[in-house]
Every structure is written in C-alpha cells, then in structure tokens.
Amino acid sequence: MRTQILATFFVGVALLAGTVVQAQTAAPSTLDTIPEKMPFSAPYGAPIGAQRAQSLIQAAVTEANKKGWAMNIAVVDSGANLVAFLRMDGAQLASILVSQHKARTAAKYRRPTKAFEDAMQKADSKYVVTLDDVIASRGGIPLIENGKLIGAIGCSGGTGSQDEVVCAAAAALVNKDAP
User: Fold this and answer.
1) Model pTM?
2) Which residues does 170 contact at the CB level (< 8 Å), separation at least 6?
3) Domain extent listing, the chain
4) Does domain 50-171 have CATH number 3.40.50.1220?
5) How do strand 140-145 and strand 148-156 relate by DSSP bridges?
6) Three-state secondary structure readout of the chain
7) Phi, psi (5° rounding) for residue 100?
C-alpha cells in the first residue's frame, strides 16, 4: 500500500513538472518575433541649429497658449544636446528636467517616447526599464528631415497626451515627410 502511495505521488509530481515546463515553453513572446526591417532606424543627421530650435519652441508655445496649458519645452540636437529651452510662465518646476529627458530619449533612441510608454503596457515588454536614459511618457518626438534625425523636442507640464499634442504641433514643422 505504501509503495502504491509513493508511486502515485511521484507520478503526480512528474505530471505537474511536465505541465509547468510545457506552460513555460508553450507560447512564444513578442520578444521572440524578429522584424524583417530595423525599426526606428533613421540615420543621425546634422544637428538642428539654435534659430530653428527657437522657432519650434515658439510653435509649441503657440499651441500650448491656444489650449491654456503651461509647458516646459526643450529641443535637443541629433546628439541629444540641449539647444533651446523655455519654461512658460506657471509651468511646473518638476517638468523642466522631464521635458529635457523626453527630448534626449527621443533623439537617442530615434523614436517617440510614446513607444516606450506603449511597451511598458505590455506584459512581455518590461525590458524597457533596463534601458539607459529612457523615459516612458509621451511628449518626446524625434525631428526627422529628409530621412535624417536632426534632433528632438520634448514637452512636459500637463498630462502625457497634452504634452504630446504640444510637441506634435511643433514637430510637424520638421516632420513633414516622416511616416
């Protein structure tokens, strides 16, 4: 009787272990999917100049004023170096560095920061937290001219969607041909 109980126990453990192994290997994650083309692969171009960066800041301010939103707005060059910055009257102090971080991330990774926000929402994309200098919040948009990244703009002070709207209005002056 004792032998039957032990045999049943070991068979149960073996079945349980097999089920766990099968569950772990059953469904491939999206991380295992290999894209045919390299995503976000615009080559780095010549850096945006100060005068043009200031014009983007003014476009962002115009959009923010239309909405009644106080924003911090940063423009970086293709090397993620700060070129222009403006803190609108009343914009929250905590968002000064956040706007700059969004712009740097968009330039370094050649993608909108919304891509990181979206990735954080996926169960199998927690790898994002392991990447250096990432901010997973909307409001950072690369500036791509003639297929080359010339810089990025970052906005912060409202919700992520508000930040993105203001940045998109300014980025549209450069990203006319971008997908």
Assistant:
1) 0.78
2) 56, 57, 59, 60, 63, 73, 153
3) 2-32, 50-171
4) no
5) antiparallel
6) CHHHHHHHHHHHHHHHHHHHHHHHHHCCCHHHCCCCCCCCCCCECCCCCHHHHHHHHHHHHHHHHHHCCCCEEEEEECCCCEEEEEECCCCCCCHHHHHHHHHHHHHHHCCCHHHHHHHHHCCCCHHHHHCCCCCCCCCEEEEEECCEEEEEEEEECCCHHHHHHHHHHHHCCCCCCCC
7) -70, -40
Q: Which two tokens stand for residue 104?
A: 């740097």
pLDDT tens digits for 72-99?
999 999 999 999 999 999 999 999 999 9
> CA 171, 174, 179 angle in degrees (round to 5)?
85
